[in-house]
Amino acid sequence: CECIIFSIDDLFRLVPRALPVHCFGAALLRLSPGCSSRTKTQRRHASHFTYQPDPVPTQYGPTQKMNLFQSVTSALDNTLASDPTAVIFGEDVAFGGVFRCTVGLRDKYGKDRVFNTPLCEQGIVGFGIGVAVAGATAIAEIQFADYIYPAFDQIVNEAAKYRYRSGNLFDCGNLTIRAPWGCVGHGSLYHSQSPEAFFAHCPGIKVVIPRGPVQAKGLLLSCISDKNPCIFFEPKILYRAAVEQVPVEPYTIPLSQAEVLQEGSDVTLVAWGTQIHVMREVANMAQEKLGVSCEVIDLQTILPWDTETVCKSVVKTGRLLISHEAPITGGFAAEISSTVQEECFLNLEAPISRVCGYDTPFPHIFEPFYIPDKWKCLEAIKRMINY
Amino acid sequence: MNKMYGLCFHAVRQTAGLKSSRLLQRRAFRVSTLHRQQPFDSTLEKPQFPGASAEFVDQLEFIEPNVISGIPVYRVMDRQGNIINPSQDPQLSKETVLNFYQKMTMLNTMDRILYESQRQGRISFYMTNYGEEGTHIGSAAALNPNDLVFGQYREAGVLMYRGFSLDHFMAQCYANADDLGKGRQMPVHYGSKDLNFVTISSPLATQIPQAAGAAYAVKRENSNRAVICYFGEGAASEGDAHAGFNFSATLECPLIFFCRNNGYAISTPTNEQYRGDGIAARGPGYGMLSIRVDGNDVFAVYNATKEARRRAVAENQPFLIEAMTYRIGHHSTSDDSSAYRSVDEVNYWDKQDHPISRLRHYMTARGWWSEDDERSWRKQSRKTVMEAFERAERRLKPNPELLFTDVYQEMTPQLNKQRESLWRHVQQYKEHYPLDLYDK
């Protein structure tokens, strides 16, 4: 597309001066006939996965159609209703949150229970630890997982170690930290990160990542009631895209239990969060194109992780593929790979495969090339089968 | 929009009357006077900014930080222990004052013995409280026993005042089987659930935002409890301190920030720690009521903490107390402060301006304490400390099983496997492990 380049004089001559500032840009775009919004370079890349909803749960009572952020709201609503000590806080949670996870809660439960904090992640987590130590239920929101690092000291040196170092006199088990996580198509360096590996190295906390609304509500409620400090990462790309029938009443899904989503005999595929949906598609493709039967496992809890379920599967299939968006070096796939080769060495038919992000910061325009998409995963399966 | 501002205006009008009264009723939430009050009106020559109102000014003038005269230091006694303004004497009973004195001196005695025990290789590390006993006892006495205490590491006197036994102090330093902390931390990292003293951790200032959160939870309980948070002037430079101050003021927490400004952060003197007027001057920047006190004057510390506590709970707002004092001892047993300060400087504070001697002068002036009392108390306190010391020396260390517990509330499969692996290993190589020192 060739836009006519205006000089500043042209701009002021052609664009009516009475227009308010925010209309200027739109007017400018209209004035350049060469630029069509429908040209190929301007169309944004489609999603790299197809969301695969869970079947409707029947054991938890009546359900309602909810997307991921609504299922989070539902979990928080249930918590505030049943636990009078529970408080939710973080940046911008009062009006409903930048991802609408806390919409309606302040009006319903009061401004002393759902409130904004100053813009300070180390403060948010430190404050949350204090609330928990004093015996109340603290649900802290970090606006993006990319911004959790100022709170790293409070999480690793304080929250994780509170019970151990005090000889169980004190603990902050009532603390849950929630943060939007993972790639979103255009998030780039600072709105796409998956920092679970940093925290996996920290005994004393739990790290949990759901794949959809039903899991999110059950796992979040488990984190909140768990007597250990938990970090709950919410795949932001699924906030609106993932829609399921979610039970209205509270229910819990156990932590540290991986879920086998489909059984298979040739390859074990392990992932968590958004990547589960990529893997499910890969499993279908592997079956159709390669005649390969894949067992898909959603790890769900990164720390402490369910080594038994994964190892049991690899003993059966002999091949393991682990995939995550986070960079490959030191990513959590490395921990899984190392443990599995220790436990299942003689059962392995091929080296364990990791399909992950590259060792770069998360790029903006290069996201389609960066992410561990279904083609890279399928190729890895092919290599393992032909080893 | 108008309705929203009308509500705010109405709310401010309602509370304006309350704010001017001395006896404030307990309110859950105080409307800040900085909150937007009136609708936007560009015909008025007043700033309309949401961030700050104040007035316009047309002279270019930078506000000068007041570091020359600075915030004055509140005191009750002079350096000789004489009351300066009788209205400020808290007029505590003889029994109470004697207890202050005995707690400060007992702490001093315990410090001498445990410092020496580190030098002899009996414990691995120790930090003394020399010179700061007044800050501990004065503030602890002004609190209720169920007020929650967050400390840094030089507040042992607060625990001692509340009744932490010598056996428990020593058990923690020796990391023996009686340690409430189960032997997991270095010496002086005390904690006591019963005495509402949160276990000390080494990272500095991390307790500050935690104290704000605890105070917020305590406020919601409506239980007439306060939270106090101790830290040094060095720790006040940490980002966590800024976070804690800002959160506690913004979220209206019943919290006392107690800064022990003792002149040094290990070897770093205050003129290399900050350029402003100490820590007290930062309080107003956060919207916090602040005061500077003579930390070596136990009554000044007591009065300030007492009033701060009363108002913090009644008004749900934080208070900042900067207690000026001097760290007479080294930073720790790993430090030799003669490397960065003169013996003359240390001697001045030890001899001319010490919280213990100033209180003793107050007591002797009233005929409450004699030379004989001093002699017999010194002998008795030393004996008590030595007996506890000998008990601690003999006690075994905790069972190494405790290496693996309390990481989570529950034992995890991985930890269980690691525990079993350690035991198998130790069984095989037992002669290389000091099992005899540990409880079975």
Automatic annotation (TrEMBL), chain A:
It holds the Pfam family Transketolase_C. Its cofactor is thiamine diphosphate. Gene3D superfamilies: 3.40.50.920, 3.40.50.970. It is found in: Mitochondrion matrix. CDD domains: TPP_PYR_E1-PDHc-beta_like (cd07036). One of its GO terms (biological process) is branched-chain amino acid catabolic process. InterPro entries: THDP-binding, Transketo_C/PFOR_II, Transketolase-like_Pyr-bd, Transketolase_C. One of its GO terms (cellular component) is mitochondrial matrix. Keywords: Mitochondrion, Oxidoreductase, Transit peptide. It catalyses: N(6)-[(R)-lipoyl]-L-lysyl-[protein] + 3-methyl-2-oxobutanoate + H(+) = N(6)-[(R)-S(8)-2-methylpropanoyldihydrolipoyl]-L-lysyl-[protein] + CO2. GO terms for molecular function: branched-chain 2-oxo acid dehydrogenase activity. Its EC number is 1.2.4.4. Residues 66-241 form the Transketolase-like pyrimidine-binding domain. Together with BCKDHA forms the heterotetrameric E1 subunit of the mitochondrial branched-chain alpha-ketoacid dehydrogenase (BCKD) complex. The BCKD complex catalyzes the multi-step oxidative decarboxylation of alpha-ketoacids derived from the branched-chain amino-acids valine, leucine and isoleucine producing CO2 and acyl-CoA which is subsequently utilized to produce energy. The E1 subunit catalyzes the first step with the decarboxylation of the alpha-ketoacid forming an enzyme-product intermediate. Heterotetramer of 2 alpha/BCKDHA and 2 beta chains/BCKDHB that forms the branched-chain alpha-keto acid decarboxylase (E1) component of the BCKD complex. The branched-chain alpha-ketoacid dehydrogenase is a large complex composed of three major building blocks E1, E2 and E3. It is organized around E2, a 24-meric cubic core composed of DBT, to which are associated 6 to 12 copies of E1, and approximately 6 copies of the dehydrogenase E3, a DLD dimer. This is 2-oxoisovalerate dehydrogenase subunit beta, mitochondrial. The lineage of its organism: Eukaryota, Metazoa, Chordata, Craniata, Vertebrata.
From TrEMBL, chain B:
GO terms for cellular component: mitochondrial matrix. The branched-chain alpha-keto dehydrogenase complex catalyzes the overall conversion of alpha-keto acids to acyl-CoA and CO(2). It contains multiple copies of three enzymatic components: branched-chain alpha-keto acid decarboxylase (E1), lipoamide acyltransferase (E2) and lipoamide dehydrogenase (E3). Its EC number is 1.2.4.4. It is an enzyme of class 1 (oxidoreductase). PANTHER family: 2-OXOISOVALERATE DEHYDROGENASE SUBUNIT ALPHA, MITOCHONDRIAL (PTHR43380:SF1). Keywords: Metal-binding, Mitochondrion, Oxidoreductase, Potassium, Thiamine pyrophosphate, Transit peptide. Residues 102-401 form the Dehydrogenase E1 component domain. Gene3D superfamilies: 3.40.50.970. GO terms for biological process: branched-chain amino acid catabolic process. The keyword Transit peptide applies. InterPro entries: Alpha-ketoacid_DH_E1_comp, DH_E1, THDP-binding. This is 2-oxoisovalerate dehydrogenase subunit alpha. Its cofactor is thiamine diphosphate. It is found in: Mitochondrion matrix. SUPFAM superfamilies: Thiamin diphosphate-binding fold (THDP-binding). It comes from Sphaeramia orbicularis. Its main location: mitochondrion. Heterotetramer of 2 alpha/BCKDHA and 2 beta chains/BCKDHB that forms the branched-chain alpha-keto acid decarboxylase (E1) component of the BCKD complex. The branched-chain alpha-ketoacid dehydrogenase is a large complex composed of three major building blocks E1, E2 and E3. It is organized around E2, a 24-meric cubic core composed of DBT, to which are associated 6 to 12 copies of E1, and approximately 6 copies of the dehydrogenase E3, a DLD dimer. Interacts with PPM1K.
